[in-house]
Structure to design on (253 residues):
C-alpha cells in the first residue's frame, strides 16, 4: 500500500479515528526492520509474521477497521488487534459494527469484538508443519483469524444452501464452493460447508467457511478440502488445490 490515503480510499472508511491513525503510523515504522524471504518472516521485537501486515499478537478484542460483509448472519471484519494496537486480524461477529474503531473503543460494548486470546490460532505454525511435511507451495494471502467468543464457544446457526451473502461494495467476491471435509479425518463425521473467498484489494483475501444447516443434496466437492485443526466451533481447513487455509465456523451442537 502506498499510503494511508490509499487505504482509506479503498475501504471507504473516511477519516480514521486518532487511535487508529496512530496505530497505523506505529505499524508502518515497525515494519522498517522486517525481513522476509524464508519460511517465516521475522518482525521487530521478535514477533513472527503470518502474512503481510499481520503479527501473532494476542487480541483480547478485535476493533473493526473495515467490513467485508455478511454471510448468513455472520459479519466479517478486518480489525485492529487490541489492546496493543499495531497489528491486524480478521474476525467474525454476530451483528453490524460501525467502522473504523480504535483500541480506545475496545472495552465499550457494541463497538469492538470480544475474541479472547484463548481462542487464537496461529496460522504460521500450521503453514510450517504442512509445508515441511509435504513440500507443498507456501500458501499465499492467508490472514490470521479470530472468531467472536460466542461463535467459538457456542457455534453458529448454519448456512443456507445457497448461503445468503451480502458483501460490501469494496469486496471482490468469488462464488461459494460447496464441499465436505472429515473432522479428525473421520469419514463417519463429515462436515458440509460453504467455502467463500472475499477480497478488499488493499487489504488482501479472506478465506472463510460456514457449516450448512442441513446436508446439501447436489454438487458436493469431496476431495479438495482437508481438515487441519479444531478449536471449539472453529475449524482450520486447507484447500488442497490452492494451498489456502479457510476459517470455518461450525453450527451449534
Amino acid at each position: 500500500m502506498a499510503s494511508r490515503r490509499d487505504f482509506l480510499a479503498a475501504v471507504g472508511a473516511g477519516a480514521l479515528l486518532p487511535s487508529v491513525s496512530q496505530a497505523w503510523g506505529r505499524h508502518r515504522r515497525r515494519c522498517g526492520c522486517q525481513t522476509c524471504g524464508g519460511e517465516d518472516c521475522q518482525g521487530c521485537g521478535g514477533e513472527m509474521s503470518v502474512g503481510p501486515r499481520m503479527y501473532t499478537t494476542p487480541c483480547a478484542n478485535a476493533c473493526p477497521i473495515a467490513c467485508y460483509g455478511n454471510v448468513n448472519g455472520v459479519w466479517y471484519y478486518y480489525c485492529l488487534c487490541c489492546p496493543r494496537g499495531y497489528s491486524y486480524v480478521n474476525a467474525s461477529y454476530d451483528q453490524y459494527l460501525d467502522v473504523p474503531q480504535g483500541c480506545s473503543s475496545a472495552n465499550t460494548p457494541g463497538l469492538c469484538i470480544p475474541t479472547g486470546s484463548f481462542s487464537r490460532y496461529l496460522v504460521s505454525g500450521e503453514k510450517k508443519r504442512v509445508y515441511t511435511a509435504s513440500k507443498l507451495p507456501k500458501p499465499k494471502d492467508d490472514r490470521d483469524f479470530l472468531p467472536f467468543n460466542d461463535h467459538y464457544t457456542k457455534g453458529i446457526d448454519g448456512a443456507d444452501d445457497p448461503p445468503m451473502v451480502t458483501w460490501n461494495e469494496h469486496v471482490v467476491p468469488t462464488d461459494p464452493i460447496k464441499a465436505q471435509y472429515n473432522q479428525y479425518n473421520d469419514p463417519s463425521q463429515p462436515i458440509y460447508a460453504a467455502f467463500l473467498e472475499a477480497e478488499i484489494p488493499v487489504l488482501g483475501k479472506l478465506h472463510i467457511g460456514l457449516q450448512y444447516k442441513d446436508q446439501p443434496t447436489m454438487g458436493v466437492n469431496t476431495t479438495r478440502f482437508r481438515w487441519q485443526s479444531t478449536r471449539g466451533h472453529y475449524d482450520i481447513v486447507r484447500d488442497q488445490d490452492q494451498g489456502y487455509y479457510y476459517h470455518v465456523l461450525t453450527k451449534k451442537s
About this structure: DSSP finds four helices and 16 strands in the chain. Residues 180 and 223 are 8 Å apart (CA to CA).
